[in-house]
Amino acid sequence: MAEASCRKVIHIDADCFFAAIEMRDDPRLRDRPLAVGGDPSRRGVISTCNYEARQFGVRSAMASAHAKRLCPDLLIVPHNMARYREASAAMRDIFYDYTDLVEPLSLDEAFLDVSGSVRCQGSATRMAAEIRQRIASQLGITVSAGVAPNKFIAKVASDWNKPDGMTVVVPAEVDGFVRALPLRRIPGVGKVTAERLQRMGLETCADLRDYSLFELTRLLGSFGARLHALSRGEDSRPVKPSRTRKSLSVEHTFARDLSGVDSCLKALPELFLQLRQRLQRLGDERVIKAFIKLKFDDFTSTTLERVGTRAVLTDYQEMLAEAWQRGARPVRLLGLGVRLLDREGEEGVAGQLPLFGEQLPT
Question: Would residue 173 show up in a list of annotated catalytic residues for this protein?
């Protein structure tokens, strides 16, 4: 792990993720109060809501019935976890282009340690900006980002300019940034703890610094010890990758729907080249199957997979023609990718993807 003062950590947090996916996939839902959650008549709970709904006081974890009382025009739609997981996986595919040190916290947020990355000449700020731009253009949603020397400050920073914002805290700015930070902005400080600290006359991290480690531990237990460190901007926790990458994909949502299969086939080579370039950067990863995904203009979608392919362009062309027949409608999104084996104990190293059907030397 890089030294604390030299670490470059990015925290990415999607803006109202579930609601953003619903609005992306159905433009009729935009510009109106929208929430994703359970039925108000069945004691449902709000999972998330868009910013139009938040203006009425609607919040996550609120009873759906109460949310409707606050905002009678609120539209509550049920969860579609398959689509949310799909978008989350596509975000992670982008993250892995910058570092293998990716720690997902949930479907909509993750830490990235880019300390050793050579992308963007090693600039974490430029990497974060590029990641945000790619997610917006490829997935049609916005994310906010925080860039800092550790996980604590990066997470706080990502929330600083929401939605669709980015905050960078360089090492020289850490002390000033944290000193003025309200204690309620510290992850883990909930309403009860914030009120208790307020009764002690503590509002900011600067106030907390007047207390010794012993005093805070005596008053707040182990969390007091953590607050002692965080109030000084100290957080040595590493970014912990949670799993081995299992797939890689690229996709594009078109400004104008592709009218038929011929239009789709014309758009395919550019996406294939993007996939080939990204797979080459993974080096020793192993391809076990290729897949292609289409989303039609009526928001239905289909995915077709083929086992044992070397993922050449001609394979994708054949798969595209077959997949398009399932809907036979204009296409708004086209995606293609590969499923990968773990690194150990398997034959069939992917190496380089063949280009346009011919086998490149390895």
Answer: no
